[in-house]
Amino acid sequence: MYNVLIVDDEMIFRKGITHLIHESNLEWTVIGEARDGLEALEMIQSQRPHLVITDIRMPRMDGIQLQATLAEQYPAIRCIVLSGHNDFEYARSSIRSGARDYLLKPVNKEELYTALCKVETELTKESESQSVAEHMPSQQVIRQQLLSSLIHGNIAYDEGELFDQASISFPHNGIYCLIVQLDRDSVTEQRYRQNDPELFFLYIQQFVREIIIEPLQGYTFIDHHKVVALINSDRSEATAQQIKSLSGQLIRNIKRISQMTVTIGIGGGVDDLESVPKSYREAETALLYRLISGGDQVLVYESSTTNTMPLSRLQAADRHFLEQLLAQENGQELTKQVQAFIERLCRQINHPEVIQQQICKILLECYEIALDYKVLSEWLNKQDMGMILQQVLLINERQQLAQYCGQLLYSLYDLIQRKEGHVIHAVDQVVRYLEEHYAEPITLNLMAEKVYLNASYLSSLFKHRLGHSFVEVLTEIRIREAIKRLIHSDEKIATIAYDTGFVNIRHFNRVFKTETGTTPKQYRDSRRHYQHPV
């Protein structure tokens, strides 16, 4: 059994999550509940859980501070973060701080179980890592683990014995981090799947070792489908230029020999081991600019981040944007529009974190729509929303991001259409409602809510599809019904006015005359005279 600690300042959420875990068939035991980060740390010190599920906003010590403390003091403990829809920035910080998942409140049972299974799988693989390590010399295993822990800041820097044991030393006064990523669009899907994907990274690593590590000095290793190099040399402009030049040579050689391309991100130089995570984060940030300028090139942190756009100048992508896409009658056209939007976003915005923010907001709106249509579990397909957002934050290639988001929105579109049974255009849905409920108080905003559209967008759809405004269509339906009653009944005109949705008789008279050229009484008299001549 694995142990989990629940941390939230609201008792109802703590008890709710505890209950969900207890009623599951998973290998998890709740060992306690804490009201904030400080209380959680006291329990962690004595109980050492495998996992902490924590809220973000809490008094005394919040979830972000708790995660930072865990990463420093208890790096083996996993963390899952809880947050509301308005905590996007906090959630992104949590994900980048190493949170395994990000769950939206109120917590969905299936999402929670999926996240727990994911962590359970990780823990099980760790316990089996000894058998994997038999295929690798022990010193190499230790070196890989130490270097990986070093770039992520999960190591005590005074543990000199471990570095000595792994034969790791950094004698020069400068350390530069470099990350090489395969440009997936340069490799056909068939070629990628026919081989073990790990072979591509081993292949790239060999080039890094020969072209960059040998002329300089340092170490290279594979970390989460990325080839990482830590270069140890004098910290100077000349060294930085040499690393950039060798990186360009590496890109050209790989393309010439293997017919595939890579992109390289280079962080700034640092003076000590404690600052290595900073250089690594800078290299990651440099790689993000592949979204803007494309791959197959060297991206250096300093030059990549000089031209940015203020956040205040951008409009956040909202539900209105999604409504336009999901109103498409052709699902393939929807996919094209999503991909075109992301391509345009990447071209127009020269700040990759803003691009990620826009796309994450779109996907959170998709989450709400999936909830509204009751297709959430089918749409997420055994994942949770945190995993979806994590994937967005990891993608730094424009085409891959466009393809990923296009598939997600098409999947949601398809589920909604299949659930409805057939495609009914939003305007047709509204007209059908108007014909059945014309006597009731009806507004454009009310109709927009019923078809999950923005009111102004629904209004534009009416003009485009029918050539008339929403008010014109509603008035036509009401006048048509009033005419039937004027001709075929002896009801009083005032009664007909109220029963067909008009506020009062004067309003009815004015609108009726505008539409027909006569008053209701004149219309009734003329029609009856025509039908029953003397």
From TrEMBL:
Residues 3-120 form the Response regulatory domain. Coiled coil: none annotated. PROSITE patterns: HTH_ARAC_FAMILY_1, HTH_ARAC_FAMILY_2, RESPONSE_REGULATORY. This is Response regulator. Keywords: Cytoplasm, DNA-binding, Phosphoprotein, Transcription, Transcription regulation, Two-component regulatory system. It is found in: Cytoplasm. It comes from Paenibacillus nicotianae. The keyword Transferase does not apply. SUPFAM superfamilies: CheY-like (SSF52172), Homeodomain-like (SSF46689). Residues 428-526 form the HTH araC/xylS-type domain. InterPro entries: CdaR_GGDEF, CheY-like_superfamily, Homeodomain-like_sf, HptR, HTH_AraC, HTH_AraC-typ_CS, Sig_transdc_resp-reg_receiver. It holds the Pfam family HTH_18.
